[in-house]
Design goal:
Elements (H helix, E strand, L loop, with lengths): L3 E5 L5 H4 L5 E4 L3 H6 L3 H8 L8 E8 L2 E11 L4 E9 L8 H21 L4 E6 L4 H8 L3 E11 L13 E3 L5 H11 L2 H7 L13 H6 L4 E9 L2 E11 L2 E8 L7 H11 L7 E7 L6 H4 L5 E12 L34
Parallel strand pairs: 5-6, 11-12
Antiparallel strand pairs: 1-3, 2-5, 3-4, 4-5, 6-13, 7-12, 7-13, 8-9, 9-10, 10-11
Helix pairs in contact: 4-5
């Protein structure tokens, strides 16, 4: 009978990973996918010392033959990991759906255990609903919390509409207001899963030489300011002829969302020949119709899933009655007291 074993990726496994190509998929969300490099780079980085990289890899072997792998990106500052790549198959093992589910379920289970031991609170993944990856995630307790769409296109050669009034670059003083906008437009289930803090909307204040040394692309943020406060926000990240736009807006300004994003992209330096991707959360699908007249089409759709390694516990304090203090209790000799001796 075949023996399945799962363990952490080792440097000597790198050569064998090249043959695990029959079935593969990316599990990271659109923003992480935009920022990251190729699968092979992730695999190489996962085998390097922990102190100089943020990726970790896991492999599955059947009778000693490497036949599947999983790569995760660790985000220790946020106490979370993101599953970024998974694959199965080998020259002697056909990667059918059932085989993939068995191998990937074991790999994901090992990653969850090590994440919990490392103090991680959440693991994230994005998968196509109903597929083998989705089944493996659900078997390990991952819960779906939102659908995610990515629309791809490019900036029109001529401006679409007018720049919305109140549009400007984000200031440091806007962070609290942007967080309140997020709380207003985002469903509670998504807020609980993402567990974002105000630092999520910090400005990109890196110097040019720090940007060269960082793997993250340059980002620029804009807001829609009104008499009622900030009602729209977008972040534009760009690198190597590509740009990605994340946004949120109040319901009453949804009609001008396309003009807002495209005007912000132009001011951020996005060119007409750049490939532009707009991330549309599942709870804001009404905006899809606003981007289609500008030539954007849905190019990617996944379900976002989260696994909590710790369970929130409600502690109900019990009041313990305190015995009454006898007013005749004496202080130390020679110490002033409010009580008269009897």
């Amino acid at each position: 009978m075949a023996t399945l074993a799962v363990r952490t990726l080792r440097p000597r496994d790198l050569a064998g990973l090249r043959s695990v190509r029959q079935r593969s998929d990316r599990l990271d969300g659109p923003v992480c996918r935009f920022r990251s490099s190729s699968d092979w780079t992730h695999q190489v980085m996962a085998a390097l010392p922990v102190r100089i990289q943020d990726e970790r890899g896991y492999v599955a072997t059947v009778d000693g033959e490497l036949c599947a792998y999983l790569v995760v990106e660790r985000q220790p500052r946020l106490y979370q990991w993101e599953l970024v790549g998974i694959a199965a198959g080998s020259p002697r093992l056909d990667a059918t759906d059932d085989v993939c589910v068995e191998l990937w379920t074991a790999l994901i289970n090992l990653a969850i255990k090590q994440a919990g031991q490392s103090g991680v609170k959440r693991l994230f993944a994005a998968a196509e609903a109903g597929g083998p990856v989705y089944q493996s995630l659900r078997a390990n307790g991952f819960e779906a919390f939102e659908n995610i769409l990515v629309m791809t296109g490019s900036l029109p050669s001529e401006a679409v509409g007018q720049t919305p009034p109140g549009m400007r670059r984000q200031l440091n003083s806007d962070i609290w207001s942007v967080h309140q906008l997020y709380n207003h437009v985002t469903p509670r289930a998504v807020q609980f899963a993402e567990a974002l803090t105000s630092s999520e909307w910090d400005l990109d204040n890196r110097t040019w030489w720090r940007r060269l040394a960082s793997p993250h692309p340059q980002s620029t943020s804009f807001v829609l300011d009104s008499a009622d406060g900030i009602v729209g926000y977008c972040r534009i990240e760009k690198q190597h002829g590509r740009a990605m736009i994340s946004f949120m807006c109040a319901q009453h300004c949804s009609e001008s969302i396309a003009e807002f994003l495209l005007s912000a992209a132009r001011q951020a330096g996005v060119r007409t020949n750049d490939v532009v991707q707009i991330v549309v959360p599942g709870y804001a699908l009404e905006h899809v119709a606003h981007f289609e007249p500008a030539g954007f089409r849905v190019s990617w759709e996944r379900t976002g899933l989260v696994k909590h390694t710790t369970t929130p516990v409600v502690v109900r304090p019990q009041l313990v009655p305190i015995s009454a203090v006898d007013d005749r209790e004496r202080a130390m000799r020679g110490v002033p007291t409010l009580y008269r001796g009897r």
